[in-house]
Design brief:
The chain is of the alpha+beta class and 135 residues long. It is built from four helices and five strands. Strand 3 and strand 4 form a beta hairpin.
Length: 135
């Protein structure tokens, strides 16, 4: 028993609607991808990263970067981060997320505070701490 023309038309219409919904959903997911947005921000310094190149180390809530890294001298990191234009207030309290991104020039270290880059610098293979784009 074959399908009537009306049934075929309804099935094709439903398939078309599902394709449109899938396309809109895909665009929305890409737009909301935090790591992709961070990669774009880092790429402004001459890198070619994608969201999947950024590794999330961990997160802490209601704490400062200085507290997360207690006992670590942040002088060089703060200076390098400020030189690249990031706020670098390591004493500001908020939700902190630590991230790394490997590049040919070294490892980019990012600390987000309340979903915005607060502290960001690159550490070269030789151990130098530099502003983004200077390695």
């Amino acid at each position: 028993m074959g399908l009537s023309n009306r049934t075929k038309f309804i099935l094709l219409g439903l398939a078309a609607v599902l394709l449109v919904v899938a396309a809109v959903w895909s665009v929305q997911l890409a737009k909301d991808d935090t790591l992709a947005h961070l990669a774009e921000e880092l790429n402004a310094f001459g890198y070619s990263l994608e969201g999947e190149d950024i590794y999330v180390l961990g997160e802490s809530r209601g704490i400062s970067i200085a507290e997360v890294l207690a006992g670590t001298d942040l002088t060089e990191a703060v200076a390098a981060s400020r030189a690249a234009g990031f706020p670098s207030d390591v004493n500001a309290v908020g939700d902190i997320v630590a991230m790394l991104a490997n590049t040919e020039a070294g490892v980019i270290t990012l600390y987000l505070r309340n979903e915005a880059i607060e502290l960001c610098f690159i550490q070269t293979d030789e151990g130098q701490v530099l502003p983004l784009g200077e390695s």
